């Protein structure tokens, strides 16, 4: 029949140990199958597998039997990128031209701010994420968007693109 095991977690020599009592006494030649479900956290940086060392001990056998079980680890996270532009729509007159040499923002066009938010919807945490964002700054030989500045929040770092605020506006 099926029975639930009584297991007790503890620390032994710096390792986390779970001790499960299978039964006492046990008949000679008994065949036992054990299904265990373990919940382990903090595996994001463990690589692609984790190895459990199992040790089977009996008071009647001369020594413990050691078994290694390797389980593949796959962290899963769903990333979501959200973006918005402020203002949402910008229309420039067909005859508009910027003022050469001016350092005033309004002489170079209408300010448009693009805001992107990268969200981790889980279930795992993520690290080492790289987001490559390509912004069309020119259309032929004309400037489409003049990239003025780049900012981040939340402990991220960004590599500024070449030509960022090239005219020092």
TrEMBL record:
Residue intervals of the Integrin alpha third immunoglobulin-like domain: 80-168
One of the record's GO cellular component terms: integrin complex
GO molecular function, one term: integrin binding
Statement: the UniProt record of this protein carries the keyword Methyltransferase: no
Predominant location: membrane
Pfam families, sorted: Integrin_A_Ig_2, Integrin_A_Ig_3
GO BP: any one term: integrin-mediated signaling pathway
Glycoprotein recorded as keyword: yes
Membrane topology: Single-pass type I membrane protein
Domain spans labelled Integrin alpha second immunoglobulin-like: 3-72
Localization: Membrane
Entries under InterPro entries matching the protein: Integrin_alpha_Ig-like_2 (IPR048285), Integrin_alpha_Ig-like_3 (IPR048286), Integrin_dom_sf (IPR032695)
Alphabetically ordered keywords of this record: Glycoprotein, Integrin, Membrane
Alphabetical list of PANTHER family matching this protein: INTEGRIN ALPHA (PTHR23220), INTEGRIN ALPHA-IIB (PTHR23220:SF73)
Name of this chain's protein: ITA2B protein
Organism: Rhynochetos jubatus
Origin organism lineage: Eukaryota, Metazoa, Chordata, Craniata, Vertebrata
